[in-house]
Structures are given as structure tokens and as C-alpha cells.
Fold this sequence. Notes:
Largest sheet: 4 strands, antiparallel
Structural class: alpha+beta
Distance between the termini: 40 Å
Shape: flat
Number of strands: 10
Number of helices: 5
Number of domains: 2
Strand content: 15-25%
Amino acid sequence: MALFADGKISGLDDLAAQDSQLLDTASEEGINVTQKLALAQGEIGIELVSMLESLQLANWPFSLALEPSIASIVVTPALQLWHAYRTLEMVYGDAYSNQLNDRYAAKRDQFHQFAGWAREKLVQTGLGICTNPIARAETPLLMATPGTLPDGTYYVTMAWLNQAGEEGASGVPDAITTSNSTFKVQPVAPPSNVTGWNVYVGQAPETMVIQNDGLIAVSQLWQQPPALRTTGQAPGTGQAANYLKPIPRVLQRG
């Protein structure tokens, strides 16, 4: 899972899995799907804030020092599906506006129903809440330094951990090419609630694994040793929810 605030929660592959004609339609009609993904996530973000406000209206007794915010929300399967379906609804709404094609209208209406279903499931099962959210790590800085790491290109990322040992989402990896050297890794912009970090290295983005035995201190740099680990824990996508809170259906009196 990942935090809603970490970035995009669905991609083109997620949409294509729901609708195999999506990319062809977008190309034919000149629709920017990436833009629709961002617009749909912005709309859903506004609705999530409203849901959090409804929890406050219902006087839900939070055990946290602070009430949950949008930064605390975890992307659950229902939330991810809601976003995917809402994006597809927007794409086919645009396509229908361009051509007034009934086939596009039917797909728009279908995905509107699917989006409503996914939203209802989210309301029923609840918002995934993380009690001590860690923002996704930024891409670390890589610096060549004297050493005996075998020459080659290495991909590197990192992730922050909180006091409970929960790991946030890893940053976008960067690459460095060594020649008669090794490299150091420097984290960027540590959040205030972290206690350390993990470093992941591989000779391809998909082969990165954890290199450190113990937690690396927040202010400490990592120097890659000559022996590259090739098996072990891979970079994670972020924190799991600590609990789920169903959304009350608040009826305001007036």
C-alpha cells in the first residue's frame, strides 16, 4: 500500500487492465490520460477531506494526538479502484463530448456506475488510516568515493522508517556508474517523525534489495561496501493502514 499523498495512486497500466480499448481511444480522440489521472485524484482528494470532516461531525474518538488528515490516508483497494474508475469515466466523458458517439456515452455511464460502487465500498469498509504517516522519500544524492566496488552501473533508492519500524514508500531511484570506486548515499529532506532509513541497491531497478543490516541514522551517509547484496528485502510501496474507519452517514439537522 501507499499513502494517498505520496503521489499518483493509479497508472496507465491500471486503467488498461480495466479497459483494453483505453489507449486506442485516447490516441484517436487526443485525450491526455495522465492529466485525467491527476484531475481525478484531485477530485477524490477533496471528497476524502469531506469524509474526514464527517468523522469529526460524528464525534469519532480518535486515539491520536492529532485527528487524521489527508496525509494519514492509505490507498486501499477500494480507494484505488474508485480512482481508476473515475479516471475512465472522465476519459470517456471527454471522448463523448468530442464525437457525440453513443458507444462512448455508454462507457462513460458504465464507469460512472463502477466509480459509485467503489466509493460506496470505501464508505462501508472505511478509510485506511495510518497513525504515524511517513512521506515518500525523495531521491537520494549519490556521490562517487574511493572504493573497490566492481565497475558498473548501480541503481539506488531509500526509504524512511518511524519509531514503530514502519517503512514509508521508497523514493524514485537514481543511478551511478562506478570506475575503480564505490559510492555514498545521502538522504534528502528527512521528515521530522523518522528515526532512520534503509538503502536499496541493485544493478537494475527491479533487482534493488536492502544493503544495510541495521537502521541507518537520519544524519548518517551510507557507503556501499565492495560486496553487493543481490537477495533480500526489496523496496516497499509504503505503509499499511493501522486501522480502517467506516464513514458515518451524517444527516445534518436544519
